[in-house]
Task: structure prediction
Amino acid sequence: MLGDVISGAKRSEAARRSYNRLSRWYDFLSTWFEKGFRNSGLKLLDAREKESILEIGFGTGHCIVALARAVGSGMVYGLDISDGMLSIANNRVNKAGLSTRVHLERGDAMQLPFKEEFFDAIFMSFTLELFNAKEILAVLGQCRRALKRDGRLCVVALSNSEQPSIIARLYLWAHHKFPGIVDCHPIYVQAIMKESGFHIDRSIARKSMGLPVEIVLVKKTGGVTANTTPITEELQTAL
Result:
C-alpha cells in the first residue's frame, strides 16, 4: 500500500513538471485535436444560470471561461495539477472579466478540497485517462462525493475499442513506449462510470484520425458516500 502511495506521488510530480513545461505551448499542440470534442462536451453538460460547476484538469482555461459565461451569477471552480496551466488560465479568466465568477487552484483530483454535495455539475476533458485504473475509481469516487444528489458529470476521453484500428494500436504502442510524452491511455468510459455508481444519461462516440473519443454524460445515483467497490479484474484488464 505504501508503495502505491509513493509511486502515485511520483507520477503526480512527474505530470506536474511535464505540464508546466507544456503550458506555454499547450494551446498550439492541443487545439487541432481537442477543441471540437471539448465544445461538444460543454454542450452536453449544458451549464445553467446560478449553478456551481467544477472542471478537473482545466488546462489553459478555455472551458473555464465558457462555463463561467454560462452560469452567470453562479460560480465555476477549477482544479489542475500544473502551476503553469494555473497561471495561464487565471490570465485568460482575468482578460475575459470573469474573475468574480471563477476560483482556480492547483490540486489533486483524488483528494478534492470541496465538501460533500457542493457542485451541480463536474466537467473533465481528456483528463480521466491520465490516471491508472485504481486512481480513476478514486477520482470518480471524489466526484460522487462532491456532486449534489441530482448532480451530473460529463467526461470527454479517449475510448477503448474491442477492435482497435491500426492508428489506435500505434497510439497504444507509443503510450506504452513513451508514457511521458503520450500520456493519455484509452479507457472504457461507460464501464468505468457504471463501476463507480453513475447512471449513463447520454453518450456520443466519435473519432479523430482513427482514435475513438467518447463524450459521456452521467448522473449521480444513490447516496453521497464515495464509491468503495473494489476494482474488478475485468475492469482492470479493460483499462
Residues 1-11, 223-239 have pLDDT under 50 and may be disordered. DSSP finds eight helices and seven strands in the chain. Residues 2-22 form the longest helix (21 residues).
